[in-house]
Fold each of these.
Amino acid sequence: MTTSLERFYSVIPAGGIGSRLWPLSRADAPKFLHDLTGSGTTLLRATYDRLAPLAGADRIMVVTGRAHRSAVEAQLPGIADHNIVLESEPRESSAAIGLAAAILSRREPDVIIGSFAADHVIRSSRQFRSTVAEAAAAADAGYVTTIGIQPTEPAIGFGYINSGENLGIESSPNALRVRSFVEKPDLSTARRYLRSGEYLWNAGMFISRADVLLEELGRSEPGLRDGLLELAAVWDDPALRGPAVDRIWPELPKVAIDYSVAEPAAKAGRLAVIPGHFDWDDVGDFASLAKINSGGRPSDLAILGENARVLADSSSGIVVTQTERVISLIGVKDIVVVDTPDALLVTTRENAQRVKSVVDALKLSGRGDVL
Amino acid sequence: MTTSLERFYSVIPAGGIGSRLWPLSRADAPKFLHDLTGSGTTLLRATYDRLAPLAGADRIMVVTGRAHRSAVEAQLPGIADHNIVLESEPRESSAAIGLAAAILSRREPDVIIGSFAADHVIRSSRQFRSTVAEAAAAADAGYVTTIGIQPTEPAIGFGYINSGENLGIESSPNALRVRSFVEKPDLSTARRYLRSGEYLWNAGMFISRADVLLEELGRSEPGLRDGLLELAAVWDDPALRGPAVDRIWPELPKVAIDYSVAEPAAKAGRLAVIPGHFDWDDVGDFASLAKINSGGRPSDLAILGENARVLADSSSGIVVTQTERVISLIGVKDIVVVDTPDALLVTTRENAQRVKSVVDALKLSGRGDVL
């Protein structure tokens, strides 16, 4: 008999531009292709490296857009063709993760998959992996399992998971039942969550037996599940795959896996959560990027950019630069400056969430050349 | 007998980088070579055009650095060689204006000169010229004469002139005696000045008979005056000018004309001032530039740049751009963004005066390539 980790397969959905990180993140240079920690590694590569020790680098599947194929292969040289799933167009996370589940399930009926975003930052890889191992055990026991991050502050930028009683799974002693998912709270609610000790940050990580995930998906989105199974049935046949994709993929419903799987499973008591005691951030906006890169001290000025030439006086916040220009800041607090060859953003931490609206405005005003 | 305006000769000292306008103003692109009002004209050209109607375009002398010769000639095509005085190195305003006075005085002993900075902004040219005409009349009566701008607000960025009694000059009915020059005041002092009605902004304009100016200069700086007279004596001899410049110019004392001429003359009761009722600004920093270009409304965002592509949301201040980059501002108030191909400045109106310190820091840190 194999262990749950031996049957484990990582799935990295690498989609999403990260509009709140414009002008750094773009359609042709999405967030996961950037080094956002100054480590010298893209987020995608860091995710891959973090997952490789779990069940081997040959058991990591990347689901990404056709347009990103060469960039992804450049980041992950040697990745096998059967581990790259290309979407002809974005159809949201249920389709992306569900397709991986369906393909892998056909190849290995007892596979346990774990889905991890390509563009999050995690500090302690060892802690992360031991948590995933425990989640895989809970998944093996039949639960759709998520990892909830133990909050360290009353963050308002994340969704929360309300956790309940211990599920009593022998090989997964920390697995708790999930009562519900809750949306990003306001500050006072976030404070209450933190005090209660019952809430974890929703990090969007899902670990599940592939068949269980597809069953759960079939309950809420039967058409989507059927489409994915149909695709998977021909996926490994080069002659049939293309026509099937062209016919089926564009018709699949666009729905986030949180809504199609996680929330319904939670309602039915079939969702488990393992509390994760490691540093995690979804780097959702420049305020978050500033925090990650400044050691958490609000007085700091974080600087990101290989060739950064920054001269700052009485300034805090973050400078992200892709150019070699001298950037001088004087007396600007909590500032966000993002300097790229064709676009410049100047805002503040407080306004970081509003960056997406700029992207929308640029689309509307015909300046899509910089998106 | 000729009128005072017929004997008038304009002098434009075009020196000074304008460090507080870095990274727009540079050693090789000083302030006077920029269009800072969005008019499509450099400040130098606007100054020239404003002065030309006074005594004719052929009676305007520009004193500038050798390095700027071709840029100046490009701005003022057709300017005669005898109207360009080239400094081998900057030696401050007493030397620059004094040399022009000495040269012109040799060519026309009864010349009246008027010196006007190349990099100030004046709105109402007609009002300006009638004020200069009256100043020329006061100069003809033997006074070193300045034009003081009637203050419209308690500005703290300008020096002030304390004016006294009317001098009773028939052809210059508004000429007042200058009691003293005062440095840039603090806000409460500036308010008191404004209320008193006795104070005018020092716009650094000097109108004087050339011989009177040189006499006044000789009192405080006899060595400087003698050097200038020696230079002027050979200036129009091409064979002798070069060696004289090489020998004399580098040894001349560096002193502002305010200290060498204006203040001593004021103390001795020999300085007159004509109140000027026209919009004037020395564009001393980006706060001033913002004011000039925003119609004075602090809620406005001023945008300067031929190819500006600015998208602003809830932002005020000024954007100056020399590039075609999309510049997006979100929720930044009183911001100053100066975008050039090799340097970017982000500061606030309040900190505008501190820009010079950046220039100093860049010099010290070996990043003089962007100065």
Amino acid sequence: MMEHAIEYLKNINKAFESRARLGIMSVLMVEEEVDFSFLKETLDLTDGNLSSHLRALEGASYLNVEKQFIGRRPNTRYSATAKGKNDFKSHLDALEKLIRDNKP
Amino acid sequence: MMEHAIEYLKNINKAFESRARLGIMSVLMVEEEVDFSFLKETLDLTDGNLSSHLRALEGASYLNVEKQFIGRRPNTRYSATAKGKNDFKSHLDALEKLIRDNKP
């Protein structure tokens, strides 16, 4: 049984470990595209904290980032890539197996 | 629905975020007490990496650590505290809600 534990732990993805990243990806599994303010309010994160997690996810090719202007104001929009959605699902599957093994 | 997302994200516990810590706590939900070598082999971690995660969990009062000797060899044994088990269950509950919301 412990052997089994090792197996699915390998599918737990470091890129999605933190609460912020779990939150960002969860939002982007439901919403096709959101802007920075929406994520900030929904996840209750500071600008700096949210930015750094978004950059990390973009660096892993999990996010598409589109910079545009609404009038004169910059507005940056985020969506999950197919790879991002796929790898996030694998991560959730691994967590689900871990939870199942920990249920009494 | 996004409002709901924020709520349970708050129960995701930073102390349990990493794969290593999820693994350590999972083992200690099943096994009453284990030694360092058992954790190292089961979780496939280096000495340094495992030590640092064990210290962090001990610092959060999630682990009991008992140093003893088997003959002349030091043998350190680890078990989860009641608080550790309880907080880990809350963490898994929060992850479970996140997974449920991400299922198609």
